[in-house]
Design a protein that fits this description.
One of its GO terms (molecular function) is ATP binding. This is Amino acid ABC transporter ATP-binding protein. InterPro entries: AAA+_ATPase, ABC_ATPase_HisP-typ, ABC_transporter-like_ATP-bd, ABC_transporter-like_CS, MetN_ABC_transporter-like, P-loop_NTPase. The chain is built from 9 helices and 10 strands. With about 240 residues, it is of the alpha/beta class. Bound molecules: adenosine-5'-diphosphate and magnesium ion. Adenosine-5'-diphosphate binds next to α1. Magnesium ion (MG) binds next to α1.
Length: about 240
């Protein structure tokens, strides 16, 4: 579903990705862990075409992202590979339900009644049915983030990229968001999750990639990577966070 081969990216003359290769199969959940500034968000941005790569190959389904030049192609891609950020960026003057409904109606031109039915199902899935008519300001951070996840799902994407979606939340709301993501993964959502939640990464993902200074230093099933890290940099990082 998602394939990167030897992806390189510099900002100015600072190399940020120095040859990233990874492969995510349909229905797989892959976590990316690693120190701040190691290139995790940049990897996600290269996958959904938010930034162009300098070198290498990026494919998502049938889309050859590294070859895309037009803004129109990129827009199509970004609907198929949704991204959920730490800042949920909901529209403050729209209810939870309306936030979920906007893009399918405005961008995909889908029928309003159908979109609403689907949006209500998605709210139910993230356990927020009773908040359909609430505005973002009336919701906790965790609830807003679950609306943002439902909004991403409403576009019926082929995959979702989660970039530290719980990093800014109060600890007591983190677990509801992780629970929602876990359910989606169990239903077969293809996703890449950048996260600092090591327990979650261990329990939910099929594979964990550890990044350091623009490289994937180690990639393995979670039990292997957490219990038996091979690279000294992985060991050092895990020693600090676990
Ligand atoms: P992470 O998500 O692992 O914390 P990022 O991918 O955000 O790391 O950033 C990797 C490096 O690239 C950092 O040193 C960061 O400062 C730099 N960087 C990221 N985006 C830009 C940008 N748009 N312009 C210049 N430097 C950037
Ligand atoms: Mg980041």
């Amino acid at each position: 579903m998602i394939e990167l081969d030897n992806v390189r990216k510099s900002f100015g003359d600072v190399p940020v990705l120095k040859g990233i290769s990874m492969f995510v199969q349909k229905g797989e959940a892959v976590c990316i862990i690693g120190p701040s500034g190691s290139g995790k968000s940049t990897i996600l941005r290269c996958i959904n075409g938010l930034i162009p790569v300098d070198e290498g190959f990026v494919r998502v389904g049938a889309h050859r992202v590294h070859e895309m030049r037009s803004e129109k192609q990129m827009r199509v891609l970004r609907h198929q590979v949704a991204m959920v950020f730490q800042q949920y960026n909901l529209f403050p003057h729209r209810t939870a339900l309306e936030n979920i409904m906007m893009a399918p109606i405005q961008v995909l031109g889908h029928d309003r009644a159908e979109v609403e039915e689907r949006a209500r199902k998605l709210l139910k899935k993230v356990r927020l049915s009773e908040k359909a008519d609430s505005y973002p300001g009336q919701l906790s951070g965790g609830q807003q983030q679950r609306v943002a996840i439902a909004r991403a799902l409403a576009m019926q994407p082929e995959a979702i990229l989660f970039d530290e979606v719980t990093a800014a939340l109060d600890p007591e709301t983190v677990k509801d968001v992780l629970f929602a993501i876990r359910e989606l993964v169990e239903e077969g959502l293809t996703c890449i999750l950048v996260t600092h939640e090591m327990k979650f990464a261990r329990e939910v993902s099929q594979r964990v990639c550890f990044t350091d200074r623009g490289l994937i230093v180690e990639s393995a099933p979670p039990a292997e990577l957490f219990d038996n890290p091979r690279d000294p940099r992985t060991r050092e990082f895990l020693g600090q966070v676990l």
